[in-house]
Amino acid sequence: MADRSPSLTRNPFTAEEKPAVSVAVEHLSKSFGALQVLKDVSFAVEPGEIFVLMGPSGSGKSVLLKHIVGLELPTAGRVMVDSHDASSERTREQIRMALVFQAGALFNSLSVYDNLALYLREHQVANEGGIREKVMRALQILSLENAASKLPAELSGGMKKRVAIARALVMEPQLMLYDEPTSELDPVMGATISEIIATLKDEFHVTTIVVSHDRDLALSIADRVGILMNGQLIHVSPPAALRDPHDPRIDDFLNPQVDLKNPRFKKLEI
Ligand SMILES: Nc1ncnc2c1ncn2[C@@H]1O[C@H](COP(=O)(O)OP(=O)(O)OP(=O)(O)O)[C@@H](O)[C@H]1O
């Protein structure tokens, strides 16, 4: 962020520091009926790392993300968060994970303030004064103080994404997952969201997994990038290795050429 707030240097929410967690995806396979979406996927994410998962539409990225937060159950294999199985209810009680959905998933009838306060009220995290402090702090970090009383319908796409991130932040997550955080944003707002993700990871040491098609985001903020194609993880490396990919499948995905003589849409199955 161009204007980094100095108060971001410590966790603003709690004296109780929760350590960042590791994530281990171990031989994960998932089928929906006859459709095998994930095929023996394995990788590990270190505590405090930003891991960006890229891949073509339909390659299984969102399904993989849902396994990490326990919203889908594996057909085979498992996902471990620290030493806990991600699919168990207990893991979700012990480890604070926040998923920032592609469309924000804000409650349209609630103000920005109440969208953020909802989780804290439901979990009786603090009294109203304490909740106000946490909500306003999160809004301040995302430069949204002036939007507290607005309804989601009154916000731009970029503001909605920032509200969704602020709402995740009030949960004091040890693990933050983002599903397409820069989709539908102009390049400058996309860069801003990338900066926010990197800043939150730096300042709060939160383990971060981002699913994205955004090559600029991956190259600028990832510690490592994984590429999923057709349900298989075909590549994991630091982003620099993707500037000159040797695998033609990765090159074609990251640097597609428009070819009007041999158009891709003629080869689409659906
Ligand atoms: N609950 C479900 N039941 C049946 N099929 C599903 C289900 N969820 C996902 N799929 C299928 O799994 C495949 C992978 O979907 P997924 O949403 O993970 O792709 P993706 O890589 O995230 O794509 P995109 O980049 O377009 O968001 C798709 O063919 C999708 O139709």
Automatic annotation (TrEMBL):
Keyword Magnesium part of the UniProt annotation: no
Alphabetized UniProt keyword annotations: ATP-binding, Nucleotide-binding, Transport
Domain ABC transporter: from-to ranges: 23-255
Pfam families, A to Z: ABC_tran
GO molecular function, one term: ATP hydrolysis activity
UniProt key word Calcium: no
Domain of life: Bacteria
Name of the protein described by the UniProt record: ABC transporter related
